Amino acid sequence: MKIIVCVKQVPDTSGKVSVKEDGTLDRASMPVITNHDDKSAAEAALRLKEKYGCRVIAVTMGPAAAESMLRDLLAMGVDEAYLVSDRAFGGSDTFATSQIVAAAVHRIGIEPGDIVLCGRQAIDGDTAQVGPQIAEKLHLPQITYAGAIDMDGDTVTVRRMLEDGYMTIRAKTPCLITCIKELNPPRYPSVMGIMDCMQKPITVLTYEDLKDEPLIEADTIGLKGSPTNIAKSFTPPLKGEGVMLEGADKNTVADLVARLGAKHIL
Description:
The chain contains 7 helices and 11 strands. The protein has one domain (2-210): 3-Layer(aba) Sandwich (Rossmann fold). It is an alpha/beta fold. It starts with a strand and ends with a helix.
């Protein structure tokens, strides 16, 4: 049994977002982090590994610099790592990205009992499309918005966290599950994990490695194979700072009423 975790290195959107003339993100000029939902998915895989003894494999599509993220995951306890990287993949939207990642997962191999974990969505696009698209292209049953995951033989039980409540779903493996960041807090790498991660190999998959996979075609990857058209990308203006009123006396209440009245809220 193995768990394949699809992860993504994303720009740190807490700062200024830079955009190229073609509408794509200028990732080279921005600091990067591991996508929050994806890191929670990796933690979920490691907890299942500790409980059931499975093998955990991390897969990411990105530039060579994404190797540092994979090293961090190896330090956390991931067993193997794959970097899907090629100039031909540049500019891929969710459709093209899912084509490429699905081909990489197919190359690694999906067997009965296996699980593919993805984050619910990436903070740079917020589409929540890639995980479900991978499932469709691999013909896997999918469960989204996982807030808890457990296994019993070849059956996985997932508690979905929805806006208006919870839903429990059981499915046979192999299947794909998308995870929310509230699923669990990611662990810190151990000292030994940090030392060992530099000795573990990272397998690089290029277009030449994947071109013979049934899920990938030259005209459905990269910017050319991306049907999404970006009309405009920009950093939204920051909201003004809030005002904290402390105290529970009449003067504080009067101040609050006066402020709300000035803004025509009262």
